[in-house]
Specification:
The chain has 225 residues and is α/β, with parallel strands linked by helices. It folds into two domains: 8-138, Response regulator (Rossmann fold), CATH 3.40.50; 149-213, Winged helix-like DNA-binding domain superfamily/Winged helix DNA-binding domain (Arc Repressor Mutant, subunit A, Orthogonal Bundle), CATH 1.10.10. The chain has helices spanning 21-33, 44-48, 70-77, 95-103, 116-148, 152-162, 167-174, 178-192, 197-213, and strands spanning 13-17, 37-41, 57-62, 86-90, 108-111. Strands 2-1-3-4-5 form a five-stranded parallel sheet, sandwiched between helices. Strand 1, helix 1 (21-33) and strand 2 (37-41) form a beta-alpha-beta unit. Helix 7 crosses helix 8 (178-192).
Length: 225
């Protein structure tokens, strides 16, 4: 493995969306020659009709295409697919375009003709970033699953703990004995696999992001909601 290649765990697939058949073929041949998996599409609509594989991905996206252009597509697609970095390629690029692309989260903006190594460096960086984001997303999902396993009372106590209330204060508010609150606190810490209040607070920050984007049914709300 050279310094420019992704680590084995970062290897995934490259998605090419470009309406130019010759460019799709050239990029496909380039990536295949390096033992990289590539899927090429002529339009964003064709790409969206394809089920995304469960692997790190990097999207190589042309800007000027019939129908929806690449910049508009990125702004719609990226917010719900942050784990898929975007590399732009274009034969008609300018500074405003590149600024818009980078502000929307693109990791590179290359103007045709570009150096193969520049593209490959961007691809390898994208695949590594995708692998890292997927790993973090899996961790957050695991924490949220633990939170969902808490009873409504345990979630309530957790919320009050994170708001700085002591066991005595929680007991008075909930009209419970202090020992009951302490037992509840110990149970929720065990279920959350938290070894300290600091760690529990960090978990709560992760949960908030998931809870805001997930449908709620009352008790499923995140801490502090």
């Amino acid at each position: 493995m050279t310094a420019n290649q992704p680590s084995p765990e970062a290897k995934g697939a490259i998605i090419v969306v470009d309406d130019d058949p010759s460019m799709r073929k050239a990029l496909t041949n380039l990536f295949n020659s390096l033992d990289l998996t590539v899927h090429a599409f002529a339009s964003t609509r064709e790409f969206l009709d394809w089920p995304l594989p469960d692997t790190p991905l990097c999207l190589v996206l042309d800007i000027r295409m019939p129908g929806q252009n690449g910049l508009d597509f990125q702004e719609e697609f990226a917010p719900s697919h942050e784990e898929i970095p975007v590399v732009f390629i274009t034969g008609h690029g300018d500074i405003p375009m590149s600024v818009r692309a980078m502000k929307a989260g693109a990791i590179e903006f290359l103007t045709k003709p570009f150096k193969e190594q520049d593209l490959l460096d961007a691809i390898y960086a994208g695949l590594a970033k995708s692998a890292a984001r997927r790993a973090e997303k899996a961790k957050v999902s695991d924490v949220y699953g633990r939170y969902q396993s808490l009873s409504p009372r345990q979630r309530q106590v957790m919320d009050m703990i994170l708001n700085g209330q002591l066991s005595k204060q929680i007991a008075a508010t909930l009209k419970l004995s202090e020992i009951t609150v302490k037992i509840c606190r110990a149970q929720l810490m065990r279920k959350m696999e938290a070894t300290s209040l600091l760690e529990l607070g960090r978990m709560a920050e992760k949960i908030q992001g998931v809870a805001k984007s997930a449908p709620q049914d009352g008790p499923g709300e995140g801490p502090g909601a």
